[in-house]
From TrEMBL:
Keywords: Glycolate pathway, NAD, NADP, Oxidoreductase, Photorespiration, Pyruvate. Residues 3-138 form the D-isomer specific 2-hydroxyacid dehydrogenase NAD-binding domain. GO terms for molecular function: glyoxylate reductase (NADPH) activity; hydroxypyruvate reductase [NAD(P)H] activity; NAD binding. The keyword Repeat does not apply. One of its GO terms (biological process) is oxidative photosynthetic carbon pathway. Gene3D superfamilies: NAD(P)-binding Rossmann-like Domain (3.40.50.720). It holds the Pfam family 2-Hacid_dh_C. The keyword NAD applies. This is D-isomer specific 2-hydroxyacid dehydrogenase NAD-binding domain-containing protein. PANTHER family: 2-HYDROXYACID DEHYDROGENASE-RELATED, GLYOXYLATE_HYDROXYPYRUVATE REDUCTASE HPR3. The lineage of its organism: Eukaryota, Viridiplantae, Streptophyta, Embryophyta, Tracheophyta. SUPFAM superfamilies: NAD(P)-binding Rossmann-fold domains. GO terms for cellular component: cytosol.
Length: 172
């Protein structure tokens, strides 16, 4: 659990959600229950929210075994990277009722979205569609664009005034 995961947890707390996490190691500063592997996290929770980086260790970290552990009422939410989930297995698990639902704003091969996902709104999970698809627009909001413009202007002002940059880029 890093910065994005911590922010997600902070937003879920007021709703009374029981928050757990999986990470490369237990974080002493984090008060939530730690699971050393994703399989045990899935087996003991109803919802998994993915917000980690995609690398060799996390590629398809959510595979069929994890989805089966999550169970028929389980929901996967992926706001990280599409390759975190074995997407074809997820489609099969959704169609077969192995998992209850998915909320996705990233896909394994973007901009492609598996056709099968568009038809899953015919299945129902407690009266709701079991798949929610959204375009990945993580930082594209009016407020964030204004902040980017202000930061760029502040950096240019600092640069041309021989002052330290507000957000220097390190190339090491």
């Amino acid at each position: 659990m890093k910065s994005i995961g911590s922010l997600i947890a902070k937003r879920l707390e007021p709703f009374g959600c029981i928050i757990s996490y999986n990470s490369t190691s237990k974080k002493q500063r984090i008060p939530y229950r730690y699971y050393p592997d994703l399989l045990s996290l899935a087996a003991n929770n109803d919802v998994i929210v993915l917000s980690c980086a995609l690398n060799d260790q996390t590629h398809h970290i959510v595979n069929r075994e994890v989805m089966e552990a999550l169970g028929k009422k389980g929901i996967i939410i992926n706001v990280g990277r599409g390759g975190l989930i074995d997407e074809m297995e997820m489609v099969k698990c959704l169609v077969d009722g192995v998992i209850g639902g998915a909320g996705l704003d990233v896909f394994e091969i973007e901009p492609g979205v598996p056709e099968e996902l568009f038809g899953l709104d015919k299945n129902f999970f407690f009266g709701l569609d079991n798949v929610v698809l959204s375009p990945h627009a993580a930082m594209v909001t009016p407020g964030s664009l204004d902040n980017i413009a202000q930061l760029a202007l502040a950096n240019l002002t600092a640069f041309f005034s021989d002052q330290p940059l507000i957000s220097p880029v390190r190339l090491d």
